[in-house]
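Re: folding output
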Amino acid sequence: MGRRSRKRYKRFKPVQRTLPKVFQCPACGMMTLIIDLESYENELGEERKHALVKCMNPKCGLRAELSDLPSIYEVVDTYSKFLDKYSKGELTIWFEKGEQIE
């Protein structure tokens, strides 16, 4: 008589979560806000970032620019900075109607 064999269980691996790339637009409320980041060097030779925030909803077309961001900022950090400035009214925004999804 032999022993019962032990049942082998599959190891549980937690799902690696990724940062979002599309955000909610504060003007229209849809999940269509995309942020384009570009790196550049300022006059002092420091690396900085410039962001273009755009809503891809053809009915909204929100646009805004954020400049002189720290080089460590990612898209999520830029979105939170955009929301802060948008809610305080410190940001120049404009609307381009009729823009289609690229």
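--- second protein (sequence, then structure) ---
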Amino acid sequence: MSALQGQDKGRKAYRSGKYDEARAYYEHVLNNRKNDAAAQFGLGATAYKQQDMEIATRSLNAVKNSDDPSLAAKALYNLGNMFRDQQKMAESLAMYRKALELDPMDEDAKINYELLKQVIEQQQTEEQEQQQDQNSEQRKDDDEQNQASQDQQQDNKEDQKQNHQNQENQKQSEKPAQQQQSQVEQEASQGKKSDKQMQAEAILNALKDQEKINQKRQIAKSKSRKMEKDW
């Protein structure tokens, strides 16, 4: 903390670490002089040490617009420290910058400002890199999903093509069997026709043989009659 402004008794208690005593003193002063900027600053600084951030913030905010530039700069500096401790980096940096505007020679404010600025820039760089990594991972995931989808579509097309080919092969393999069956049926039919033809030929031959026999008998009878006449 910067050197305290205000009554010697309050500063002495503060510097001795007797924060309860210092706070009681500044509260007593403010009860009598509400607009005492030095006492307000002392109360804010003491409350900050006691981790009473509500009183510290309220008291220091009351001083940062003081007509005393040096006192206002110290209040802004302490507010910057408070915001930094709360990880409110942007607010802290703004307080340090305003403190330097009021007191450009404040080395503590200058050092804290530069260090915090570097921290913020580093955080922004890391966040950007992290975002880029996330975007890269997302693009990678999207590409993998798209590739997987394309592969699946290609597999489906190949499966359909293979199924179609299998069906064609099945049809082709069934044709010889059908042709063979048709040929067998045709041969069987021809065989049946041949049997009938053979039977018909046999009957015809039998009829022819019978006809020959009948003719021979007729000839024999004819000869017999002639012999009888002659006799």
